[in-house]
């Protein structure tokens, strides 16, 4: 018996069936996938205190991945299932040099094109290090050959001039297209000083975001929406799933586990099994009656989750037409944190722009506390400081605050798991929160493998002993 038909639960059912086990998944909702949700015209977003209906035009391109959106190139298990299940993939752009970085506290509040800041940062670092080497400050560490090689590399790295100075570089781009009709590209932009760029943490973090192992190019996304992944998994295990089965009680028994759930008519129903794999997110699990050990109960109750919030709008593609931004992410040091441009459907009339993606922290909590219309108003006000066109062009706003979504009650686990990694008698635990890749579907899959190993080991040991 498996509780929850998210990626962890469905992986468990799929692989345990392949191993010869007979499995049933109890799933509270009318479809599988859990957090893997793609919102299209007419879809409803339920939160514990509000309900929104998506007003996007009916169009295959106009979808909003409210949860997972990107897949790292080395998330090999998820990618393997995508290959096996025929889920078509395309490129997801994290790092677009034409997207913008914006802080109200820097450069007069004017958004900066990423390529310029990146070129200036590399140039500034390369010049500083070259100076240190040329002034023999690193002679203790470097031989004469090392120094020559590194100076040559730094010239390329930072686009330094012949004297190892960072002057100006075409890498930073040009001011505009003012030289139409001539053979000149215009003046080079004057470089920003490194000291000016690193005035606060905002730039440091944003400039290196896509260096992270799970965020490096090439990133991928399913064509047509992330729920293609959920639907593909669901097709494999659909006969194992009991939908609209809301688990209300989980008990260890002498030889296995007993679960009580409300069926689709609300009737309490009991199910017994040799093993139970619980993939219900911890904030929900904490509200379900159980007889887990005190240590398991304590870890479930204390498990922290991110308060992720996303807000999407339908809009004419002004970012492409006016600013040559094709996919990727702009960052702002306001609560809304990120603006995402669609990575597909270029040059079509409308697109879905994510006006705010807040991972966690005070901004996440603040936005979670707002009602849907307040979130839209606040997002438009802040996003307009980056793109003035957001006011007027962005419409049909729809938001999701994961801490308020029934059966989820959080974005992703942020605590370190320990007790829940061990079974409580015949009850095993899985879900992204118990993996080393929290907040990733790959983590949900890995957690399922870990639980399956536990069940199989238990059976092998029992048969050896028996
Ligand atoms: C905003 C956001 C962005 C993300 N971005 C990415 C990304 O870019 N790439 C990526 O790979 N991952 C991303 N993730 C993470 C990814 O969505 C999760 O890691 C993964 O989907 C979790 O799967 P799961 O099976 O562990 O949990 P869930 O998907 O939460 O599944 C749990 C299931 O349990 C069910 N359930 C709950 N309570 C009960 C009950 N009482 N009775 C019966 N069933 C119940 C739920 O309905 C649900 O179906 C993101 C998540 C969020 C929220």
Task: Give the key terms.
alpha/beta; FAD/NAD(P)-binding domain; Polyamine Oxidase, Chain A, domain 2; de novo design (two linked rop proteins); 3 domains; five-stranded parallel sheet; 14 helices; 23 strands; 20% strand
Assess the beta-strand content as a share of residues. 15-25%
Ligand kinds? flavin-adenine dinucleotide
Spatial sequence of strands, sheet with the most strands: 12-2-1-16-23
Label the CATH architecture of the largest domain: Alpha-Beta Complex
In CATH, the topology of the largest domain is named Polyamine Oxidase, Chain A, domain 2
Number of helices: 14
CATH structural class of the largest domain = Alpha Beta
Largest sheet: 5 strands, parallel
Tally the beta strands.
23
Looking at how many chains there are and whether they match, the oligomeric state comes to single chain
Structural class: alpha/beta
Task: Provide the number of structural domains.
Answer: 3
Rg value: 26 Å
Shape designation? globular
Flag low-confidence runs. none
- Calculate the terminal CA-CA distance, rounded to whole Å: 23 Å
Overall pLDDT level: 95
Q: What share of the residues lie within helices?
A: 25-40%
């Amino acid at each position: 018996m498996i509780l929850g038909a998210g990626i962890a639960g469905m992986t468990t059912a799929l692989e345990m069936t392949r191993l010869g086990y007979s499995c049933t998944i109890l799933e509270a909702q009318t479809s599988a996938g859990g957090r893997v949700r793609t919102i299209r015209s007419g879809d409803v977003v339920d939160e514990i205190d509000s309900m929104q209906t998506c007003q996007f035009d009916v169009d295959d391109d106009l979808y909003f991945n409210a949860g997972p959106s990107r897949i790292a190139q080395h998330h090999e298990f998820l990618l393997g299932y995508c290959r096996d299940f025929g889920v078509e993939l395309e490129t997801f752009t994290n790092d677009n040099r034409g997207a913008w970085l914006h802080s109200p506290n820097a450069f007069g509040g004017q958004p900066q094109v990423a390529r310029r800041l990146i070129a200036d940062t590399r140039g500034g670092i390369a010049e500083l290090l070259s100076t240190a080497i040329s002034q023999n400050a690193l002679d203790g560490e470097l031989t004469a050959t090392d120094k020559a090689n590194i100076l040559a590399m730094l010239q390329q790295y930072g686009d330094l001039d012949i004297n190892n100075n960072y002057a100006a570089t075409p890498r930073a781009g040009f001011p505009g297209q003012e030289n139409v009709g001539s053979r000149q590209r215009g003046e080079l932009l004057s470089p920003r000083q490194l000291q000016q760029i690193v005035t606060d943490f905002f730039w440091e973090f944003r400039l290196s975001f896509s260096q992270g192992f799970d965020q490096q190019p090439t990133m991928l996304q399913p064509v047509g929406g992330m729920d293609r992944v959920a639907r593909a998994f669901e097709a494999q295990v659909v006969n194992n799933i009991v939908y609209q089965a809301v688990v209300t009680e989980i008990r260890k028994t002498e030889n296995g586990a007993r679960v009580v759930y409300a069926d689709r008519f609300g009737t309490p129903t009991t199910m017994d099994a040799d093993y139970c794999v619980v993939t219900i997110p911890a904030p929900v699990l904490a509200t379900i009656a159980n007889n887990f050990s005190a240590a398991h109960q304590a870890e479930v109750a204390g498990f922290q989750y991110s308060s992720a919030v996303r807000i999407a709008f339908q809009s004419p593609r002004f970012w492409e037409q006016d600013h040559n931004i094709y996919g990727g992410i702009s960052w702002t040091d306001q609560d809304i944190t990120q603006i995402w441009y669609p990575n597909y459907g270029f040059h079509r009339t409308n697109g879905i722009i994510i006006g705010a993606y807040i991972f966690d922290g005070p901004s996440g909590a603040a936005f979670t506390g707002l009602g849907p219309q307040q979130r839209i108003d606040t997002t438009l006000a802040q996003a307009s400081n980056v793109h003035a066109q957001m006011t007027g062009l962005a419409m049909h706003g729809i938001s999701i605050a994961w801490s308020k979504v029934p059966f989820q009650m959080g974005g992703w686990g942020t605590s370190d798991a320990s007790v829940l990694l061990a079974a409580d008698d015949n009850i095993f635990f899985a879900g992204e929160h118990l993996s080393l890749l929290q907040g990733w579907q790959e983590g949900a899959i890995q957690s399922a493998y870990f639980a399956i190993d536990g069940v199989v080991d238990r059976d092998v040991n029992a048969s050896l002993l028996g």
